[in-house]
Predict the structure.
Amino acid sequence: QVQLVESGGGLVQAGGSLRLSCAASGLTFSRYDMGWFRQAPGKEREFVSAINWSGTSTYYADSVQGRFTISRDSAKNMVYLQMNSLKPDDTAVYHCAARPKYINNDYRIEYRYWGQGTQVTVSS
């Protein structure tokens, strides 16, 4: 079955950096767009970033543009989220997600598979 397993979360001070990883298995990785979402306590889940199946296009929420970078390694079936200049508002559980390629041009929706998430806490 499809599994997405996130790692790399933790506690960091404001201004610091973390790199999240997502290991994908049970799917043909090159056939899927990949995304990162986050959910803070008491808030709805929100889109953070996405990368298309080939790695040639990336997308970011306005709140993380210029601070976060998404990438993928198709040889390892991995997706990464490099997070720099972290702020307390970035505190959330971060989830990796996968959706079939070409499903539509809105990379915030239509994700079919989800990971359990990794906690990121940014202290002020």
Summary: The chain has a mean pLDDT of 97. The chain is about 0% helix and 50% strand. The longest strand covers residues 92-100. The radius of gyration is 13 Å.
